[in-house]
Backbone:
């Protein structure tokens, strides 16, 4: 199945909508009817996109550009003005990062309870991989005031803004996929489903035994999480500990048991899971 790399779906949709808009009148179709057909085409392609932000960009690109060329005060703008937001995005997100998640801040309470479910010692090294404006670092600091927090962001403007907001953390510009994770005790991610296989492979190669991979919203397919939190509906937090595998630990740690004992109001799930033994598959 054809699955062009983002942002090709958006660009191809906008170009094809404009092609409909330009060619239809040559066959006697009224310009406004052609515009409505092109808008419908854009929206139908947008509905096929997997993420809400992609659906919005694919669906809104052509209608916005078309409206800016129509009558009214907006027509006083130059025809190229609708490209300004794309230029801003290009500055914020260099081409090399288009395959990663856009700027989606960590919700304020999404990591609530993480410090209880997964206690870390003082001085532990924790990195927010793709820290954006720093919302994830702020949430991590509330849970782990005693650890060494680091932020990594490829976009220079976002990195500067994050460093200004999060003076308590070491924030630097870098590629999360090229940076070595081997010295870290925890890597926190808020990526997207397409990025998770990449994160899985990197964690397998580089995170040492006992280190943690924590992912907001998107799980690592094929791995059983050590713990799953969900304090914000629809935003689960998946916790995986190296060495990674397809089964969870055989029993909870004392800290995990305490977390579950307090929690199940916070929807903490830390019951151990395992594959049944062969003798358990059949009852006498």
Residues:
């Amino acid at each position: 199945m054809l699955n062009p790399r983002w942002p090709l779906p958006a660009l191809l949709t906008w170009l094809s909508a404009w092609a409909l808009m330009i060619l239809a009148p040559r066959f006697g179709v009224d310009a406004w009817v052609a515009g409505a057909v092109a808008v419908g085409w854009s929206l139908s392609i947008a509905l096929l996109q997997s993420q809400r932000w992609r659906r919005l960009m694919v669906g809104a690109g052509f209608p916005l550009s078309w409206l800016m060329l129509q009558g009214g005060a907006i027509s006083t703008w130059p025809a190229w003005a609708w490209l300004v937001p794309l230029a801003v995005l290009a500055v914020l997100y260099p081409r090399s990062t288009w395959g990663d998640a856009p700027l989606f801040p960590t919700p304020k309470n999404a990591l609530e309870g993480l410090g209880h479910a997964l206690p870390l010692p003082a001085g532990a090294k924790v990195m927010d991989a793709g820290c954006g404006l720093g919302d994830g670092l702020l949430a991590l600091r509330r849970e782990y005031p005693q650890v060494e927090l680091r932020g990594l962001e490829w976009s220079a403007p976002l990195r500067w803004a994050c460093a200004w907001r999060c003076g308590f953390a070491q924030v630097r510009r870098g590629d999360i996929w090229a940076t070595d994770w081997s010295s870290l005790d925890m890597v926190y991610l808020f990526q997207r489903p397409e990025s998770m296989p990449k994160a899985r492979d990197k964690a397998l190669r580089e995170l040492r035994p006992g280190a943690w991979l924590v992912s907001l919203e998107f799980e690592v397919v094929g791995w059983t999480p050590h713990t799953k939190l969900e304090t914000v509906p629809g935003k689960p937090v998946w916790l995986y500990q190296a060495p990674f595998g397809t089964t969870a630990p055989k029993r909870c740690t004392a800290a995990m048991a305490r977390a579950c004992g307090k929690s199940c109001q916070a929807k903490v799930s830390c019951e151990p899971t395992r594959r049944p033994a062969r003798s358990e598959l059949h009852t006498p």
